[in-house]
Amino acid sequence: MSDQTSTEVQNPQAPAPPPIAPGELVGVKHGQFGKSGGPDTSGYAGLVREVRLPAPAQPPFGGWYDEVDAALRQHLPAPGYEAMVEAVIIDRGEMAYQIRREHLPTFLRTARDATPLRFELCLGATGVHFPQDEGRQLHVTYPLLSITHNRRVRVQTTCPDDDRHIPSATGVYPTNDWHEREVWDMFGVIFDGHPGLTRILMPDDWAGHPQRKDYPLGGIAVEFKGASIPAPDTRRSGV
């Protein structure tokens, strides 16, 4: 086995994770699992939690973060870095670029092909729905890995609920085919240019996207040997 098993050994020039800065408040959550009142011995109904997005970072970032940023500024084609990058976020020791959605393929291609960057692998696509984040409720993240330089960054982009279109990354990273299908299936993001954007987890005729935060909590009634099992959100007394 290799003795290089920790991030500190693999990336000796990486800076220490900075403290988590309080970011933009996008909402306040009350309760959990749909409970906000009534009989509840678990205490979940009384939970109150702020929903905050990490605050943007300002250069210099420290260590190899500055090398990546300088390479992007040098190699991104027109319209250039300032037009493509909305923010750089460093949170919990990870570097993320917030990209305007129309520039996503160009940014990813540069990150893959530029010699100082060489992020050869995209490790999938993930989605998050923030209903309170006005004008950018749907977030999609692409984690990138450079085998050449042993570095990881995240590339993030957003779209609003009323215009759920983002350019597909499959033209740059073809293995994102199924990952983007899953984000479409679960969150409803439409990836323009995807070769076959169809459901991958839910039945083809399923209505809605189950991991959106405005999707009804619970499930569908299940019939088993003539007995009916109600949806999970209707099983508690007093609900």
What portion of the residues fall into strands of 2 or more residues? 25-35%
Secondary-structure content class: alpha+beta
Percentage of residues assigned to helices = 10-25%
Helical stretch count? Answer: 5
Walk me through what this model shows:
The longest helix has 12 residues, at 64-75. Strands 3, 4, 5, 6, 7 and 8 form a six-stranded mixed beta sheet that branches. A two-stranded antiparallel ribbon has the order 1-2. Strands 9-10 form a two-stranded parallel ribbon. It is globular, with a radius of gyration of 21 Å. It starts with 6 loop residues before the first helix and ends in a 10-residue tail after the last strand. The model is unreliable at 1-12 (pLDDT under 50). It is built from five helices and twelve strands. It is α+β, with helices and mostly antiparallel strands and 239 residues long.
Please write out the topology.
Layout: H1 7-10, E1 24-30, E2 48-53, H2 64-75, H3 81-84, E3 85-91, E4 94-99, H4 104-113, E5 121-122, E6 126-129, E7 138-146, E8 151-159, E9 165-167, H5 176-187, E10 190-192, E11 222-224, E12 227-229
Parallel strand pairs: 4-8, 9-10
Antiparallel strand pairs: 1-2, 3-4, 5-7, 6-7, 7-8, 11-12
